[in-house]
Amino acid sequence: MTTDADDSIRSRSIAKYRKCAAGYDATCGPTWRIRERTVAALQLQPGQRVLDVGCGTGLSLPLLRAGVGATGMIYGFDQSPEMLAFARKRAAEHNWPNVQLLHTAAQDLRLPEPVDALLFHYAHDILRSPAALARILACARPQARVAIAGIKYFPAWLAPLNLWVYLKNYGYNGAPGDLRAPWNRIAPFLDGWQLTPTQFGMGYIGAGQLAVTTGGRG
Ligand SMILES: C[S@@+](CC[C@H](N)C(=O)[O-])C[C@H]1O[C@@H](n2cnc3c(N)ncnc32)[C@H](O)[C@@H]1O
Question: Per-residue DSSP letters for 74-98?
């Protein structure tokens, strides 16, 4: 169920991305390798259906398209009209008929079919919202692959650096903070969960697959 907290976090996020959408891609160069590794963790096969959660400007679309090929289907959604406009432009430039981009909040997501894989690339606010997660997981088939990348606090011995991590995160999230274990609301739904720290412990890539009892019909 969507809460008032969800609504105010979403409003703050939309306002932030209204300001930063145009410059967003230029900030993503340093994390490109993480994006590639996270998409690779989905182990996509030609013909599969994949969902790009909070797809932003669509930077992951070429990697996802390479994974599922011309016979697969790529869904992406974002609540920020400014971010999604860039994703739509990217898809149009490539002339991909099998990319469908939706302007919606995660909390209201509906897809026409269940997907085989879920990509959460720097989608922190969505990962922290139980209502958003419930809706997304209902749009995936049981045993769908899930891969997640994001920012997290450094381990305890580097804790003094975490103020910097918080401030870095602040510009991109309606609910900055909550960075100790950002995956801990989705991990209980996943089998074979594996977590790999990145960026000296300031980031992570996690992957697993939806439990047989989790997932829905789109
Ligand atoms: C840090 S950006 C990441 C974008 C993209 N995944 C990438 O890797 O470049 C986070 C994105 O999540 C979107 N977002 C945040 N909360 C959302 C929600 N509740 N529903 C839909 N989109 C949301 C934002 O608008 C933003 O585009």
Answer: EEEEES-HHHHHHHHHHHHHHT-TT
Of 53, 213, 173, whose CA–CA distance to 118 is shortest? Answer: 53
Q: Please tell me the residue having the least CA distance from ligand 1 atom 4.
A: 56
Domain that holds residue 144: 4-210
Position 110 in a domain: yes
Give yes or no for residue 125 CB within 6 A of ligand 1.
yes
Residue 217 inside a domain? The answer is no
Give the number of the atom of ligand 1 that is nearest the alpha carbon of residue 83. 27
**Ligand 1 contacts CB of residue 176 (under 6 A):** no
pLDDT (tens digit per residue) in 117-152: 999 999 999 999 999 999 999 999 999 999 999 999
Residue 144 lies in a domain: yes
How many independent structural domains does the chain possess?
Answer: 1
CA 157 to ligand 1 centroid distance, Å: 30
Residue in 74, 120, 125 to alter for ligand 1 test, most ligand atoms within 8 A of Cβ: 125
- Report yes or no on whether pTM surpasses 0.85: yes
What tens digit of pLDDT does each residue of 39-63 get?
A: 999 999 999 999 999 999 999 999 9
Task: Tell me what pLDDT residue 155 has.
Answer: 84
Residue with tokens 């412990």: 201
